[in-house]
């Protein structure tokens, strides 16, 4: 504090002496102002990094996530109730062929029913034979009655037989005819009954055949719900679930705004947890319906055969939407006004001019410039931050690591 007082006093003494000699105070401050003015006048424009617009390959991708599911699934069930599983010939994870035996059910009850039906059929056949014999007897009776009626008519015409004899002959013929018709109807009923029994037999044979549960198609067994000694039925669900041909795919949801850019056949890479290498894949199908609440559509990405892929796996997919060459700049160089894009181009006098551009593909931090910029033109690498349209700059050229070109 004491030092400040001394300095202040010394300054006051100098000013007082100058005033006594007639020297202006400006003499002390003018040189400093001059120096400051010179410094401002010679200041360099701000150093700003610029980058050239270069031609490069642009690969635009869409990242999706979803679960691995079977392309087509077969449910192996049974419509028999109360059947016990006696044998199991396949387990989950097994590859099976169409017609392979998967399980065997107890068919003792069905075989008992079949034996009963066989006995009923034999009884029906005996009944048919009996009725046919009755028909034969009835046909003989009809012939005899017809012959008797003919004799009675001739005798009546000669006046030998009475009218009552002719009437009796007519009645006998009608009775014999009725017995024949009755026997024929009985035969038809017996044959129909035999047909019912044969149908029952076929139904039981079909049920017995179903006790041998077989694979409906080639594929991979995803699940086995059948257990030895377990009782199966139509209400317990499928005994086995099979991924037909073992084909699996990624089912992923994507926003409906992206769906128009997708099509079957687009290439993709799919990554599964724990796997270092991506699995080559492609879009197999785009489902035709969009979820009305979530506004999402589902795509199916077919996977190549891979031992480590399992149904239910979580997976990430990268779909290649576009691959082409074009003039591009870093996305940080763009400035937007609404939906329109602009770049701060470096002109020949190292001044910045803001130019409108038409944008194309985006990939890996770069944006394709379709119109408004030529290959080799330099632009401010981070536009809109430090300079405005018409400002002069000191361009800094070099890579992103900070190395500046000489």
UniProtKB/TrEMBL annotation:
State the Gene Ontology terms under molecular function: efflux transmembrane transporter activity
Record carries keyword Signal: yes
Q: Which residues form a coiled coil?
A: 166-193
Domain annotation Multidrug resistance protein MdtA-like C-terminal permuted SH3: ranges: 327-380
Signal peptide boundaries: 1-29
This protein's GO cellular component annotations are:
efflux pump complex
Residues covered by the CusB-like beta-barrel domain: 250-318
Q: Which UniProt keywords apply?
A: Coiled coil, Signal
Q: Which family does it belong to?
A: Belongs to the membrane fusion protein (MFP) (TC 8.A.1) family.
Q: What is this protein called?
A: Efflux transporter periplasmic adaptor subunit
Q: What is the species of this protein? A: Aquibium oceanicum
């Amino acid at each position: 504090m004491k030092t400040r007082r001394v300095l202040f006093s010394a300054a006051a003494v100098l000013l007082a002496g100058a005033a006594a000699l007639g020297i202006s105070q400006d003499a002390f401050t003018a040189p400093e102002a001059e120096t400051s003015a010179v410094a401002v006048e010679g200041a360099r424009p701000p150093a700003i990094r610029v980058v050239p617009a270069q031609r490069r390959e642009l690969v635009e991708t869409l990242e999706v996530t979803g679960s691995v599911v079977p392309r087509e699934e077969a449910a192996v069930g049974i419509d028999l109730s109360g059947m016990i599983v006696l044998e199991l010939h396949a387990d989950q994870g097994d590859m099976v062929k169409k017609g392979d035996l998967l399980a065997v059910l107890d068919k003792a009850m069905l075989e008992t029913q079949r034996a009963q039906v066989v006995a009923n059929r034999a009884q029906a056949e005996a009944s048919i034979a009996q009725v046919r014999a009755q028909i034969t007897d009835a046909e003989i009776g009809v012939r005899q009655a017809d012959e008797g009626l003919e004799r009675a008519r001739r005798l009546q015409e000669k006046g030998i037989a009475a009218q009552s004899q002719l009437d009796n002959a007519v009645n006998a013929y009608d009775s014999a005819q009725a017995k024949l018709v009755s026997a024929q109807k009985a035969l038809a009923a017996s044959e129909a009954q035999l047909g019912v029994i044969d149908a029952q037999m076929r139904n039981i044979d079909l049920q017995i055949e179903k006790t041998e549960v077989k694979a409906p198609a080639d594929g991979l067994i995803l699940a086995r719900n059948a257990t030895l000694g377990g009782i199966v039925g139509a209400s317990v669900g499928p005994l086995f679930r099979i991924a037909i041909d073992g084909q699996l795919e990624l089912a992923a949801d994507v926003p409906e705004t992206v769906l128009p850019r997708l099509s079957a056949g687009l290439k993709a890479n799919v990554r599964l947890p724990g796997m270092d290498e991506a699995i080559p894949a492609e879009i197999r199908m785009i489902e035709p319906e969009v979820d009305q609440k979530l506004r999402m559509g589902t795509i199916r990405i077919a996977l190549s055969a891979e031992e480590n892929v399992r149904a239910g796996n979580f997976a990430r997919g990268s779909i290649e939407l576009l691959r082409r060459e074009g003039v591009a700049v870093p996305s940080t160089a763009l400035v937007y006004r609404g939906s329109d894009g602009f770049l701060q181009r470096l002109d020949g006098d190292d001044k910045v001019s803001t130019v409108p551009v038409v944008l194309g593909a985006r990939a890996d931090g770069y944006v394709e410039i379709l119109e408004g910029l030529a290959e080799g033109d330099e632009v401010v690498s981070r536009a809109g931050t430090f300079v405005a349209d018409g400002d002069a700059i000191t361009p800094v050229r070099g890579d992103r690591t900070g190395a500046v070109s000489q």
